[in-house]
Amino acid sequence: MLRCTRENASTAISAWIADWFELVAQGRIAEACARLDEPNSYGQRWSPEQIVAAVEDTFDPESRFARRHPEGLGFTKPSAAYGNACAHIDELDGESGYWAEYNVPLNGEFSDLTAQFRFRWVRDRLLASLHDLDVL
């Protein structure tokens, strides 16, 4: 849950996502998942195992990314990742919340894998959900 105003929502969402990936990079994926307030629009609540599996499935051993990183895949703190997070935040129709995309930081750089989040207004709070992890 994210407390903010409509005026500072974009900044607050960007900070929330960066903090979320900081937890993931520290190996605290269960804690990061606990910060997701509701399931995505398909009814899925992401577990730590599902997040790791999605990354591993995206970058199988034959992928270009995996070949460049024979040491294996590892989450990186956004503050230490090379490149651009390409954070993109848009308001949902009807001002009901926001849609956010953020490149997943892996192995010291921002990858082609994008985390798609949704933030829905409930009074003065935004409820967060991880919609999907996908290469866009």
Write a compact overview of the structure shown.
This protein is of the alpha+beta class.
Topology:
Blueprint: E1 2-3, H1 9-25, H2 29-34, H3 48-58, H4 64-68, E2 88-91, E3 97-106, E4 109-122, E5 125-135
Antiparallel strand pairs: 1-5, 2-3, 3-4, 4-5
Describe it for me?
The structure is a single chain. This protein has 136 residues and is α+β, with helices and mostly antiparallel strands. The chain has helices at residues 9-25, 29-34, 48-58, 64-68, and strands at residues 2-3, 88-91, 97-106, 109-122, 125-135. The protein has a 5-stranded antiparallel β-sheet.
Q: Show unreliable segments.
A: none
Largest sheet: 5 strands, antiparallel
Distance between the termini: 26 Å
Average pLDDT taken over every residue: 93
The total of beta strands comes to 5
How much strand content do the residues show?
25-35%
Q: How are helices and strands ordered from N to C?
A: EHHHHEEEE
Anisotropy-based shape: globular
Cα-based radius of gyration, to the nearest Å: 15 Å
Strand line-up of the largest beta sheet: 1-5-4-3-2
Helix coverage percent: 25-40%
| Content-based structural category | alpha+beta
Number of helical segments with 4 or more residues: 4
